[in-house]
């Protein structure tokens, strides 16, 4: 087949194919999709099958050495099956056939050891490639219609090289009884895909094939080199699967995310959430309301309407009148119980709050200073018990300061195991020794 005939054949074929795809496009109704951004591949069409045809050449675009210096134009053709794994990546299986040939100029400097020409018949080439969508011309539009892609993979090629008309078919292999040579190859290519319809795409591509051998053209003139050939092609790709699902190839994830965010049901959920938040905020404000200004909210105030400035306890009721200052003579503060603690703990018990509230009231109304002495039972080391007794004294001081007592009015001391008020040989005695006592300075 000469070059002119090849051009005419390809032109007629693709005019017919484009007509068919236009008809398919007219019949393909646009369908709405409920696909979600993170909904998985099952919501898309991910399988496609393609056919292609084009020109085979013993040369590649990146150059390099060749055993022949002129190429012939030959037809190649193939089919493909692809599984799209994501918006930008898929796996594609390819099978193709064709013929590659070349010639050398006559003369003393001819390449290929004086061989004038070769013609290699490819029984088949089969490979698996990764396909990466590297750019989309109209990615910022809602619908993509042009994709650029690159491919790379690994395959196996079976071929029969004929050199200067010498056909060695049936003489290949270790035993000299094989019709074809089989070699591995690596395909590397790039191309552009045009969306014809929701089902059909038109592809233009170029692939370089690097063969793991130096016998593709039947010449071993450069034993350290590997042979190669290229395939420039055009083809059609058909999406398989339910027409109710979109083709993953053409889904714009940004547009999909925008639609999902603008979904009316989602907006309604957001508005409902705002209403619930407003209701919660109103409830919180109601909880904080303190009509009599005594520091206890109305929700928990058992004695509403207390006069301004009245000292109240945690339930909002007036505290008992504090004893006169003369009641604060030396020794333990008169009328105040010892504060007890759990084993190995410096956390105040709730039953100690009324005692501490009374002590706080006396200090706030009468002034003066108080020494808070912390103690521990005899379990553990002396150093640890000393620290624990200090922590217990500081817990009392923290409570008093938080209730309005000036920090300078409270002095804390830790005595560890010293000064037990009961025997540490019994649990009952140890419980009594885990304590804090308050004494006026």
UniProtKB/TrEMBL annotation:
Localization, per the record, is:
Cell outer membrane
Question: Where's it mainly located?
Answer: membrane
What is the residue range of the signal peptide feature? 1-26
Instruction: List keywords of the entry alphabetically.
Output: Cell outer membrane, Ion transport, Membrane, Porin, Signal, Transmembrane, Transmembrane beta strand, Transport
Q: Name one GO cellular component term.
A: pore complex
InterPro entries on file: Bact_OuterMem_StrucFunc (IPR050330), OMP/PagP_B-barrel (IPR011250), OMP_bac (IPR006664), OmpA-like (IPR006665), OmpA-like_sf (IPR036737), TSP_type-3_rpt (IPR028974)
What Pfam families does its record include?
OmpA
Residues annotated as coiled-coil are none
Protein name (record)? OmpA-OmpF porin, OOP family
The segment annotated Disordered runs over 415-441
Query: What's the protein's topology in the membrane?
Result: Multi-pass membrane protein
Recorded GO molecular functions are: calcium ion binding; porin activity
Q: Which Gene3D superfamilies match?
A: 2.40.160.20, OmpA-like domain
Span of domain OmpA-like: 328-441
Single GO BP term: monoatomic ion transport
* Ranges of compositional bias, category Basic and acidic residues: 427-441
Xref: PANTHER family = LIPOPROTEIN YIAD-RELATED, STATOR ELEMENT OF FLAGELLAR MOTOR COMPLEX
